[in-house]
Backbone:
């Protein structure tokens, strides 16, 4: 099964020449404390998280990271049965990785987290 599913094209007004980007989707399905790669690295491309929808089975802190080292969105604690359902972050996206780095979710404990994200490769 592919890492992501192509949904449709969008244009990103980020100062670069106009380029069509495919919105892709990836699943979140983890119980592992610590880092879990949600989208594998793409050589020379940044991964821009544009939408996220997930729920948690128990209280857990969740952070988003670029690869193993750089925190993009600091840890936020979610209560049992809670989660997030957000389309298009405050600036059209929530965060973006460094070029050539994976998009990683980090859990503060071994808790089931399930959902999906939408992202583009730029």
Residues:
């Amino acid at each position: 099964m592919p890492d992501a599913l192509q949904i449709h094209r969008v244009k990103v007004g980020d100062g670069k020449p106009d380029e069509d980007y495919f919105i892709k989707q990836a699943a979140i399905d983890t119980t592992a404390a610590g880092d879990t790669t949600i989208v594998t690295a793409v050589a020379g491309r940044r991964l821009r998280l544009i939408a996220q929808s997930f729920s948690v089975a128990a209280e857990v802190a969740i952070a988003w990271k670029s690869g193993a080292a750089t925190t993009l969105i600091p840890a936020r604690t979610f209560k049992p049965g809670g989660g997030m359902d957000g389309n298009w972050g405050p600036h059209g996206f929530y965060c973006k990785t460094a070029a050539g780095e994976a998009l990683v979710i980090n859990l503060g404990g071994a808790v089931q987290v399930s959902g999906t994200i939408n992202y583009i490769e730029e």
Remarks:
- Residues 17 and 99 are 18 Å apart (CA to CA).
- The two ends are 22 Å apart (CA to CA).
- The mean pLDDT is 86.
- Strands lie at 5-11, 20-30, 34-39, 47-56, 60-66, 70-78, 83-87, 95-96, 103-107, 113-121.
